[in-house]
Structures are given as structure tokens and as C-alpha cells.
Design brief:
Largest sheet: 8 strands, mixed
Shape: globular
Distance between the termini: 30 Å
Structural class: alpha/beta
Number of strands: 17
Radius of gyration: 21 Å
Number of helices: 9
Length: 379
């Protein structure tokens, strides 16, 4: 900050051009590698498999495909499905994708997705580490999964819709939290693939998918007639054509989401902590299903350069600010209102330290925040 000529705007120009932060010498193009990431605090370490495309170079941005393995195949086989082999390159290798497969299952031999927050942590930490280790185009990060991994793709995609350019559940079920989160995905393209006789997949998905289609969401639904559970490799070339047309949605001034878990509390420029006691998540596996009470969050940035958190019962609020996408104007006075109370009304300066800290943690080169404000409820 003491260097003359080094401003937040200059750093914002530099960050997308810098080489990857972490060393990735063990990961060579065409060579599957398992990477282990130390956990933060008391969290266990996170591990994921990665395969770089043949033409990968640290100076060239590549799209990223996060593939969640099924209960039927280990992570290495999920890599093979998308990437092929050294002798015969698969579509991901031919299209220049970095593919990572996280070890997201909470226990060995797991046969069903358990909606455990740890799966979210593994997936998100893997994405963050990959962004720091490789030159990832964060506007072209896709989430896909087979069977149990398809269930997880629905859940994680609906819980963190601003991270992905598209989600591909294959033989996945939209269940539990998805019943309340589906509207979070109004700007998230989906390509859903099912077999007509695969479990009760078609019936379970019908409710959320019909709601989304009736409201004009970007959803492609493919059902193979008279087919049971399958990898549906015949669809793979259409998937890569679909992905080639997509980019992550720009940051929106308007946020309207629902949440039931502390792991689902970061949406675009707004992060919150401490859900109220009124937010009730039932025992999904219990003998009786009681009422579920998610917390609805509504926030916007209006034309008066004011951040309005109109509805949020959280204990803490963190607001990330950027001039990107016309979000705010640093040359004008900024106002912040939380649940009807004025909490801030002043000019704010771009903060290089805040920008670097956000980049250090998230590794996102395409969305850079220039300042941050933090508030606690009642103060």
C-alpha cells in the first residue's frame, strides 16, 4: 500500500495475469495426480484427483470440470469417463478442460449421498485449491456427477449457484434441501439426464424441474426411454457443446435465496453467518418428517448506491464491494441498510488488502472485490 502508483485498480489489472500461486510440478498434462489439501483448523484434509489437458500451460486459462463420482466407481474411473486414456483421449482432454474429481464421500463404501456439509467443504476447498494451483477460468467452472454424484450435483449446485457456469446431474435425484433451494438456481443453467426406469429418479425430479421450467429457468432435461441407470456416454458430445456456450452469470445487484445450513451462506457479494433458531432443518432420516423452516434472504444494491439487506436473520453480515458489473460507484457516498436500520453512510476507499485477501482465499481471478464491510446484528 505504501508503493507509489500501486492502487486497487492497478492490482485488479495485475492479478488475472500473474502465474498460479501454488506449485503444481507433480501435475503434468495427461497424467492423473492425487492432490491433498491441508484442512483449516480442525477440519480434516481434502483430497482430489486432477488431470490437465495436453496443451495446458500456466499462462493460458482453462475451463474446469468438477466431476463427482458415483457409488459404483472410484474417482480414478470418473476421470477416465470424462478424459479417456493416454492412448485414446476423451472429450475433456480434446476440449482443453482441467478435470478434478474430489473424494467427497463422508465414509468408505458409501452408497447414498447423505447431504453432509462436509461434502460441500470438500468440493469448495478443491475448487479453491485448483484455482490457486492452476490457471482456471473461474467463469467456466462446471459441476457434474453420476448417480450419488448427481444427487450431490443438484444439492451443491443449488446451494452455491454463483460458483458455476452450469450443472450436469446424470441419474441424480433432486431431494431434501433441493425442495427448498431450487429457486436459488434461477441464473444457473442445468443439463439433467435420466433413464425412464432408473429408481424413482424421474418422479422425484419432476416437481422441482417443472417449477423451474414454468418460470423460464435455463434447464435442459433429457430422458432416455426404457433405460435404467447408465453413464449415458452417448450424451457427452452434446454436453461439451452445451458447456462451450456458457459462462458464469455476472454478479447481480439482486439476491434472493433460501438457506438451511451454515455451509450455504455465501451468495455473490453477500456472506452471512449465524442462522437464527427459527431456521429448522428436520431429521431427514427420522420416522416422521416435521415442518422445515428455511431462512429467506433478500438483498439488493439500488440506484442510490445503497446496499439494502431487506431480509436476513443472520447474526453477522459481510458485504463485498466491487465496481465490476456496475455493482457500486466508489466515487459516491455508499449507504448500507440492514433490516430497516441505517448501518453505514459514507464514502469508502478501495482496499488493496481486502482484494488480496479475497483472492488469497478464493483464487478467483475473474471476480475481484475492492473492499469489504462487516456488521453484526444489533450493533
Amino acid at each position: 500500500s505504501s508503493l507509489e502508483g500501486i492502487s486497487a485498480s492497478r492490482v485488479a489489472q495485475m492479478l488475472p495475469l500473474l502465474p498460479p500461486v501454488l506449485d503444481s510440478a507433480e501435475a503434468a498434462p495427461g497424467k492423473p495426480v492425487r492432490i491433498q489439501v491441508p484442512g483449516a483448523g480442525n477440519d480434516p484434509a481434502v483430497a482430489y484427483w486432477v488431470l490437465l489437458p495436453p496443451e495446458y500451460h500456466p499462462d493460458h486459462q482453462c475451463p474446469l470440470l468438477m466431476a463427482l463420482h458415483s457409488e459404483k466407481r472410484p474417482p480414478e474411473q470418473e476421470l477416465t469417463f470424462w478424459c479417456g486414456s493416454e492412448a485414446k483421449l476423451g472429450p475433456a482432454q480434446r476440449h482443453g478442460y482441467i478435470v478434478i474429481v474430489p473424494e467427497y464421500a463422508s465414509k468408505s463404501g458409501q452408497t447414498e449421498y447423505d447431504y453432509n456439509p462436509n461434502a460441500h467443504r470438500v468440493v469448495l476447498d478443491s475448487i479453491r485449491d485448483a484455482r490457486r494451483r492452476f490457471n482456471v477460468d473461474s467463469d467456466r467452472v462446471f459441476l457434474a456427477g453420476h448417480d450419488m454424484g448427481g444427487d450431490a450435483a443438484f444439492d451443491i449446485g443449488f446451494s452455491h449457484p454463483d460458483l458455476f457456469a452450469g450443472v450436469i446431474p446424470i441419474c441424480g435425484v433432486s431431494d431434501r434441501h433441493c425442495e427448498y433451494y431450487w429457486d436459488n438456481a434461477r441464473n444457473l443453467p442445468l443439463y439433467v439426464i435420466s433413464g425412464e426406469f432408473d429408481r424413482n429418479t424421474v418422479n422425484k425430479n419432476a416437481k422441482e424441474l417443472m417449477r423451474m421450467m414454468l418460470r423460464g429457468f435455463n434447464v435442459i432435461y433429457v430422458e432416455y426411454v426404457a433405460a435404467g441407470p447408465d453413464s449415458f456416454y452417448s450424451e457427452i458430445h452434446k454436453l461439451f457443446d452445451w458447456m462451450s456456450r456458457l459462462r458464469r452469470s455476472p454478479l447481480s445487484k439482486d439476491i434472493k435465496v433460501k438457506t438451511l445450513r451454515e455451509c450455504d451462506t455465501h451468495f455473490g457479494w453477500y456472506k452471512f453467518e449465524g442462522l437464527p433458531k427459527t431456521v429448522v432443518e428436520i431429521d431427514w432420516d427420522g420416522p416422521k418428517r416435521g415442518p422445515v423452516h428455511p431462512m429467506t434472504v433478500e438483498a439488493t444494491i439500488n440506484e442510490a448506491n445503497t446496499v439494502v439487506i431487506a431480509k436476513s436473520g443472520a447474526a453477522k453480515h459481510r458485504i463485498w464491494l466491487t465496481p465490476q458489473f456496475g455493482l457500486i460507484d466508489f466515487d459516491k457516498r455508499l449507504g448500507v441498510r440492514i433490516n430497516g436500520t441505517q448501518r453505514f453512510n459514507d464514502f469508502i476507499k478501495p482496499d488493496t488488502e481486502a482484494m488480496l485477501e479475497y483472492f488469497r482465499y478464493h483464487g478467483d481471478r475473474q471476480q475481484l472485490f475492492w473492499a469489504v464491510l462487516e456488521f453484526s446484528s444489533g450493533r
